[in-house]
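Consider the tokenized backbone below.
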């Protein structure tokens, strides 16, 4: 018995399946952003956040997107000071804990005390630790276990999620 499937049908089916998997992996399946859930000290409507933030800041802080690597000027910031949440101005990281991870994003080995919150992130078919501002819930980035001493952690942070305040 001969199959009625031809190369064109097989290709279309493969592309459709691949597109579906990619849509799920990239969060296009209607995933609700954690930044807009929960009880945070600072809450705003989507319209209020959009009025306050640039488009890329909104996408990263409120929709858990990621900026392209090596695009943030904060990646090369070497002055003494504090890195604040771009959404609510809460100090999150001290420049003394910043290091060059070579990843293309500002990296720190620890956050300031009581500055950030974390949660498990299972997107992109992997298990990661998402880090967010504890006051407004703004997505900052992720924490990995490949950082330098003394913590061995790497807080890989989107530069657009931060603003630098020199000492």
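A designed sequence for it:
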């Amino acid at each position: 018995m001969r199959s009625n499937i031809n190369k064109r049908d097989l290709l279309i089916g493969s592309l459709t399946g691949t597109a579906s998997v990619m849509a799920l992996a990239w969060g296009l399946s209607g995933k609700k952003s954690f930044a807009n859930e929960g009880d945070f000290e600072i809450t705003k409507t989507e319209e209020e956040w959009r009025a306050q933030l640039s488009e890329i800041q909104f996408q990263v802080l409120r929709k858990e997107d990621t900026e392209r690597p090596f695009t943030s000027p904060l990646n090369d910031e070497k002055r003494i000071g504090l890195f604040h949440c771009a959404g609510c101005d809460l100090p999150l990281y001290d420049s003394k804990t910043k290091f060059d991870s070579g990843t293309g994003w500002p990296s720190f080995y620890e956050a300031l005390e009581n500055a950030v919150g974390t949660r498990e992130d299972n997107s992109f078919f992997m298990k990661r630790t998402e880090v967010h501002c504890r006051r407004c819930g703004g997505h900052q980035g992720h924490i990995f276990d490949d950082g330098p001493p003394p913590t061995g952690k790497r807080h890989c942070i989107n530069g657009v999620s931060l603003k630098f305040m020199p000492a």
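The domain at 32-166 is CATH 2.170.150.20 (Metal Binding Protein, Guanine Nucleotide Exchange Factor; Chain A).
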